[in-house]
């Protein structure tokens, strides 16, 4: 982590080979580091009663210990995505809390909408967990992802799933 230039890379590689020995079959892969930002969690899952649900929260203690997670039904609209981000109690962290730089909420909204579309278009996708999603001042990076597939459930409705307009 935090390898800034070629000299630092050579030093880090030397430390690894001193510790682990030179690789004989596998070659190390160097990847760009994700930019610093706010760690978030984006999930989609199928609820037996409600159908597909999109969830969002900050990674770590806010969502895991305090239950600070927001949910919306799929398919999500632009408005749903914007409200989802703003409805968690820790939302100020995303908008420049205590002098920190605000993060790219437009990119986060786009990710939420794409995940909603994926789950809505592919009923065999039972759950998706993107964790962490590092949201930076410009853009975001998904560092971990898991997807669970299953045979699509039998549905009596053949059209798109929509909530009625009241």
TrEMBL record:
This is Acyl-CoA synthetase. Pfam families: ATP-grasp_5 (PF13549). It comes from the Bacteria. It comes from Streptomyces parvus.
């Amino acid at each position: 982590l935090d390898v800034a230039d070629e000299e630092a890379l050579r030093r880090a590689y030397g430390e690894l080979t001193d510790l682990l020995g030179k690789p004989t079959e596998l070659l190390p892969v160097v990847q760009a580091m994700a930019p610093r930002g706010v760690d978030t969690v984006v999930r989609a899952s199928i609820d037996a009663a409600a159908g597909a649900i999109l969830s969002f929260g900050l990674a770590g203690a806010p969502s895991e210990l305090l239950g600070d997670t927001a949910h919306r039904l799929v398919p999500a609209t632009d408005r749903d995505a914007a409200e989802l981000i703003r409805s968690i109690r820790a939302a100020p962290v995303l908008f420049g809390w205590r002098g920190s730089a605000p993060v790219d909420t437009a990119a986060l909204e786009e990710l939420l909408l794409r995940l909603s579309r994926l789950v809505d278009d592919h009923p065999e996708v039972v759950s998706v967990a993107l964790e962490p999603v590092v949201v930076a001042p410009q853009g975001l990076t998904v560092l971990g992802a898991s997807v669970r597939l299953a045979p699509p459930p039998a549905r009596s409705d053949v059209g798109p799933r929509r909530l009625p307009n009241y």
